[in-house]
Amino acid sequence: MLRQQGRRDKFKLVFFSPADKPGNRLGEKAVKGLLDEMQKRGIETHLGHKMKGFEADKVKTEGGEFAADLILFMPGMTGNLWFDNTTLPRSAGGLLKANQHCKVEGFDKVYVAGDSGSFPGPDWMPKQAHMADLQAEAAAKNVLAELNGSTADATFKIELMCIVDSNNKGMLVSRTEQKNLMLPNSRVFHWAKRGFEWWYLRQYR
Q: What's the CA gap between 125 and 122, in Å, rounded?
């Protein structure tokens, strides 16, 4: 966007993360692809150092600090505050502990889907978007089965799928327990993402 506006040369961009391989959930290919794209765009990186804090004009890490006029930071996810007022079982990160059927451990007819739950699976398993859809489908089937006196044995497929969009192109990343696919930047994926967003808004607005 800055390039389109003719202002890119007036900005210094630094991507920072305590992870030495940011985006590792997407797979090794995606990590390399993302870092290569940043390098092409002149975005500096500050990786693999734990956060120490922020000041009004500074980012501080155990590996050093750098000046900043604007800081965008997304902290790690934790459970909802109202969980603290319940006896629902929690993971180390404060999420609701669930099994492969999305059922909350030790509770009758209580299910969870998406980023409120902690589920069995590989450490790269996402918590939102497409994965939440798959979990919600399994949870709904199991709730209905329990209410009808049937066996609640539906499970969810573990799958990651996303388009990393860069305003005019997109990079498709897909991952399952069997394979990891990354397709290079293409205008096709950018417009596919835009089309999905339009469809989603029409469906759920």
A: 6
Amino acid at 161: M
Distance, CA of 200 to CA of 205 (rounded, Å)? 8
Q: Is the dihedral of CA 75, 79, 84, 89 positive or negative?
A: negative
**Contact (CB, 8 A) for 164 and 171:** yes
Measured in whole angstroms, the distance separating CA 100 from the mean position of its chain's CA atoms is 20
- What is the chain's alpha carbon radius of gyration, rounded to the nearest angstrom? 20
Please report, as a single letter, which amino acid is at residue 23.
G
Is 154:142 a contact under the CB 8 Å cutoff? yes
What are the backbone angles phi and psi of residue 176, rounded to the nearest 5°? -130, 180
Mean residue pLDDT of the chain comes to: 91
How far is 35 from 26, CA to CA, in rounded Å? 13
For residue 205, name the pLDDT band (cuts at 50, 70, 90). low
